[in-house]
Specification:
The protein has four helices and 41 strands. By secondary structure, it is mainly beta. A hairpin with a 2-residue loop joins strand 23 and strand 24.
Length: 601
């Protein structure tokens, strides 16, 4: 809290009326309130979630090729696919199941493989997990499969078959599951685009529901127009709502279910005008999509400030049955052309993958905010796969050209102690966070460093006021800097405010109502007759922002006031508030002078 100390309460002797006295007192104090509000807002550092890797990388019990081709997580169960496994007869892809036991992920059971005698290469790309159900595409088998867990045991695979459909001609690029309903995206047939472009009714998605011990087809979702291609490239389902994208057309289509019947909801969702065409259908608007309730995230692309393609993610929301795009855009702090290649969404957390990295975003007000640096990155494109459930995310990385690939990595922002949150984070009500504006916000043994992070680097080095100014906190033109807030009419004395390196006083020659500020901070002291009145903020002979001995600021003091003072990185607002306060004091002084003249008359 910003703390002010007032001058001794000598009454103003004469005012023309009690009402005017109240008005002048308000004029005197209102700027203080405004300054408090403005500087408090400036000082508060918005925290970010801290996601850290939990445990060692997950690998197959024996070396596997393409381990990490697909990942999915639900509760305490995590699956990782190996797209080119030697397990099974014939060999092909396989799923490895991990369970969280005492906060550690442990491989359980035997790998899950296709049991219908077909080589299912690239099994798990894509895949989805919900409760006891696992749905997966299998590229070389041109099919989709389901696995069901009964107790602690996963059963044999079940191929998903649509009535009247030729067998094994699906190119499955997206799957999703919600409760006992699954959706499979099939934008192309027989691994070519020819048939689906000529016959658009062949593209789209298939909905299956779990009935008893089997998955049965419920509907085929498609668009009756020859102008759409690649429909079903990305699919997602949440309750009775499903979305299909058509990246070739830069569109997405929403369908809803009522009484077991599916129908399109509203018109197509079109790409924003700033989207740019990409050479790959999987890039650009609709390359990835994820739906949760009334919120839909869709990957896209636009031009950055330098005119280069930049990946982004757009948010759409539904209100009263109508979908509209919000102003929120998820974009990395540095341009990443492939940002949005992968999407995962759970509660208020989104994981966004690119060809080289995985980013965490969290809801922040009406928008989304990136939570620190990417949680995972590699130097060359390796297409990390991402999944998230609650406070746990998993990144799969298949490949064999870099160290520590062919593995899956688990990250979380959940915590029970500060130890869970790494060197810069702290545990706040079960969530790891970073960011601070004062030492008191940091755990014991850490300080709020000049970068606004809780650090364990030990005592802060002593800096001069000039060094503080160079660090960007206050400085000579900032709040309480050497320029001060002197009033030539005498509010702070002829020498003005105390220099930022001064440890106390109201100016060299005092004066009525001087102001001091030490360490470049904006905490304020009000003095009367040249004597500083102590306060808990910086400056004066109370606890200061810097060392008590010489008043110079420390690395924390450049940003963090001692006691109940606080930091302000921008000196404009405090100066404005102090100027307003000076104006109010001069107005009150003139009123008092007029009152004395009236009394003498």
């Amino acid at each position: 809290m910003f703390t002010f100390a007032t001058a001794p309460s000598d009454p103003i002797l004469v005012h023309t009326s009690s009402s005017s006295m109240g008005m002048y007192r308000w004029l005197l104090r209102a700027p203080l309130l405004a300054l408090t509000i403005l500087t408090t807002a400036s000082a508060h550092a918005e925290t970010t979630q801290v996601w850290t890797q939990r445990g060692a990388a997950l690998t197959a019990p024996s070396p596997e090729r393409r381990f990490g081709d697909g990942v999915a997580i639900a509760g305490n169960t995590l699956v990782v696919s190996s797209g080119d496994s030697d397990v099974g007869t014939p060999s092909g892809g396989a799923f490895y199941v991990f369970e969280r036991i005492d906060s550690r992920w442990t491989a359980v059971g035997q790998p899950l493989t296709i049991s219908d005698g077909i080589k299912a290469g690239h099994l798990g790309y894509p895949c989805a997990l919900s409760g006891d159900y696992l749905i997966s595409g299998a590229l070389s088998a041109a099919s989709a499969y389901a696995f069901t867990r009964n107790g602690a045991t996963w059963g044999d695979s079940e191929r998903l078959i649509a009535e009247g459909e030729p067998e094994r001609e699906w190119w499955v690029t997206g799957v999703s599951i919600s409760g006992n309903t699954a959706i499979v995206g099939v934008p192309y047939r027989n691994l070519t685009q020819v048939d689906t472009i000529a016959h658009p009714g062949l593209q789209g998605a298939y909905v299956f529901t779990r009935v008893g011990a089997a998955w049965l087809p419920e509907a085929r979702l498609s668009i009756d127009t020859n102008g759409v291609s690649s429909l079903g490239w990305a699919v997602s389902i949440s309750g009775d709502t499903a979305v299909l994208t058509a990246p070739s057309n830069r569109q997405a289509f929403v369908f809803t279910r009522a009484a077991g019947e599916w129908s399109q909801e509203g018109p197509a969702l079109d790409a924003p005008g700033e989207v740019v065409d990409q050479e790959n259908v999987g890039k650009g608007f609709g390359g990835a999509a994820v739906l949760s309730g009334d919120t839909l995230l869709i990957s896209g692309s636009r031009l950055d400030s330098a005119g280069a393609p930049a990946g982004v993610v757009y948010e759409f929301v539904r209100a009263n049955g109508i979908w509209s795009r919000t102003a929120a855009v998820l974009a990395p702090s540095e341009t990443d052309p492939e940002f949005g290649f992968q999407l995962a969404f759970s509660a208020d957390t989104a994981i966004v993958g690119s060809y080289r990295a995985a980013y965490v975003f969290a809801r922040s007000g009406a928008g989304w905010k990136q939570q620190g640096a990417p949680i995972f990155s590699v130097s060359s494109p390796h297409y990390p796969m991402v999944a998230v459930d609650g406070q746990t995310a998993v990144v799969g990385m298949a490949g064999n050209t870099e160290v520590e690939l062919d593995a899956a990595y688990v990250f979380s922002d959940a915590c029970t102690t500060d130890v869970d949150c790494g060197s810069t984070g702290y545990c706040d009500a079960g969530t790891c966070r970073a960011g601070c504006s004062h030492d008191s916000e940091c755990p014991s043994g850490r300080v709020c460093a000049a970068d606004g992070m809780c650090r364990t680097e030990g005592p802060c080095p002593t800096l001069t006021s000039d060094e503080c100014a160079a660090a960007g906190a206050g400085g000579s033109a900032g709040a309480g800097g050497s320029a001060g807030v002197a009033d030539s009419a005498g509010a702070a004395g002829s020498a003005g405010a105390a220099d930022s390196a001064s440890s106390g006083g109201a100016g060299d020659s005092g004066g009525s109502g001087g102001w001091t500020s030490s360490g470049g901070m904006s905490s304020v002291m009000v003095a009367d007759g040249g004597d500083a009145v102590p306060s808990s903020g910086a400056g004066g002979h109370a606890q200061g922002a810097g060392n008590d001995a010489d008043g110079t600021a420390t690395a924390c003091g450049c940003r963090v006031a001692g006691g109940s003072g606080f930091a302000v990185a921008n000196g404009v607002l405090p100066l404005l508030g102090l100027w307003l306060l000076g104006a109010a004091r001069r107005t009150a002084a003139r009123a008092e002078a007029r009152g004395r003249c009236a009394r003498r008359g």
